[in-house]
Amino acid sequence: MPKRKKPKIESVKIPPGKRKEYMIALVASWAVPGAGHWQLGYRMRGLVLALTVLGIFWFGQVSADYRAVNRSIHPIFYCAQVGTGFSAVLSNGLWGVPAPSAGPRDLPSRVDDTLPPYLSTGILYTSIAGLLNMLLVLHVADPRTWMLRAAEDRDQRERQSNPA
Question: Could you list the mean pLDDT of each consecutive 10-residue stretch along the chain, which spans 164 residues?
């Protein structure tokens, strides 16, 4: 059986003059969902992505009575929620309460009546929003996204300079 040739993988890198802009876009994309796409010039896409991710996040927070994001009580979920950036950090700072100290309980098998009825749903929604935003950050981090935007800008400049 003949050996197959491995496909040639081209190295795609950010141009040296764009590295600072690239890092700013990455941080902005994490801190505010859609901000990286906005900075790349995809204004409508950035706005739609921001409204979608933040809408999912804040729907989860409201449905859980602002108790879905809490680093000290459910740190595993916080790892996913912090993907929404500033919203998760703000929520944890404003509404995150310290974990209760472990002590004897009257009925350990009884469900805590003080928990919001949709806390699990809120945690799920806020976690999904954080993971979705991390996908957006990865899209902004991909050098091919930057190359595509540069090609679109170049084509647009050519169309403006050579009207048909």
Answer: 59 76 93 95 95 97 93 90 94 80 53 78 96 96 87 86 75
Number of structural domains in the chain:
1
164 lies in some domain: no
| Single-letter amino acid, residue 60 | G
Query: Whole-prediction pTM value?
Result: 0.80
Residue 4 phi, psi (nearest 5): -85, 145
Position 13 in a domain: no
Q: Give, as one character, the DSSP assignment of residue 69.
A: -
Residue 92 domain-assigned (yes or no): yes
- Check residue 41 and give left, alpha or beta (phi > 0: left; psi -120 to 50: alpha): left
Q: Which residues of 105-134 are buried (b: 16+ CB within 10 A; e: fewer)?
A: eeeeeeeeeeeeebbeebbbbbbbbbebbb
Among 93, 98, 91, which residue's Cα sits nearest to residue 126?
Answer: 91
